[in-house]
Design brief:
alpha/beta, Spore Coat Polysaccharide Biosynthesis Protein SpsA, Chain A, two-stranded antiparallel sheet, 11 strands, globular
Length: 226
């Protein structure tokens, strides 16, 4: 049986913490950030189709990038919504013929094909998979006044990343039933009572949010010889 996996690359954010820089097109190793994200997926044979979700003002620029670098794997480029989860839902509408849906932040340009493959393999076994790394720092819970309420046990804390992969019916059901704000797709699925399987991500798989993150991404790619 041929199992199809569709990927949604979510890149419709406003880049508010980047000042005047649009992080999706910021230069990293002489190429736009989004190039590096799409390049990893283009090299991954386990992904059958890619939907790229962009903000309205970036649609033309995004289409130009896809054409320039020959990313034929990108089947659709669509406009995102006001919230991240709205953007994912719009991307999901283009992948109804897929068995598994992989969701990835466009602003994580250091993703690798091996990490993508691991995400899909784990989801095929468990129905869900979410990249995550063990928390290194001590995490404290504080009250509104900034006073510590308690210190969490670090051993069971994970820093969640993307890719996140779900069987199509699981993620489609979550988006049809849950409407409140969430910070990631796994949280949406959790609200339907489904179990989420974590798999080991990578500390290099950073999400570019600030100008400092751009510098770090450049350093990591340089260490990879890129």
């Amino acid at each position: 049986m041929n199992v199809k996996t569709g990927a949604i690359i979510v890149a419709a954010g406003s880049s508010q913490r980047m000042g005047q820089v649009d992080k999706i097109f910021a230069s990293i190793s002489r190429k736009p950030l989004l190039y590096h994200t799409l390049s990893a997926f283009a090299k991954c044979s386990s992904v059958d189709s890619i939907v790229l979700v962009l903000s309205e003002h970036n649609l033309k620029r995004g289409r130009s990038l896809v054409k320039r670098y020959g990313f034929s794997e990108v089947a659709q480029i669509c406009e995102g919504g006001p919230r991240r989860q709205d953007s994912v839902k719009l991307g999901l509408d283009h992948l109804a013929n897929c068995d598994f849906i992989l969701i990835h932040d466009g602003a994580r340009p250091l993703i690798t094909p091996s990490l993508i493959d691991e995400a899909i393999t784990t989801a095929k076994e468990h129905g869900t998979s979410v990249a995550a790394v063990p928390v290194k720092n001590t995490i404290k819970v504080a009250d509104d006044g900034g006073f510590v309420v308690k210190t969490l046990e670090r051993e069971n804390l994970w820093d969640v990343q993307t890719p996140q992969v779900f069987k199509y019916d699981i993620i489609a059901q979550a988006y049809s039933k849950v409407s409140e704000n969430v910070t990631d797709d796994a949280a949406l699925v959790e609200r339907t009572g489904k179990s989420i399987k974590l798999y080991m991500g990578s500390y290099d798989n950073i999400k570019v949010t600030t100008v400092e993150d751009i510098h770090l991404a450049r350093l990591i790619l340089s260490n990879r010889g890129k």
